[in-house]
What does this fold into?
Amino acid sequence: MYSSRSCPYCHAAKRLLAARGVAFEEIDVDFHPERRAEMIARAGGRHTVPQIFAGDRHLGGCDELYALDRGGALDALLEGASP
It folds into this structure.
């Protein structure tokens, strides 16, 4: 997950993943601004944080993550995906 320490949506996404017991790698673009271009490329041009991935699959941002969870698809997508 690409994130920013001051982003409330990033904190919400991290809370959901933690509640699901999902280990994840966090790339804070505030501490690593050079990684922002990587995030934008991987996320198909999206430049806001968070941008969340399950392995190489782009899940989207916080809203998409919560929608996947509400729809029951999040667990299946995260199963077996490595950070």
Q: What stands out?
A: The first strand starts at residue 2 and ends at 3. The radius of gyration is 12 Å. The chain has a mean pLDDT of 92. The CA atoms of residues 44 and 58 lie 9 Å apart.
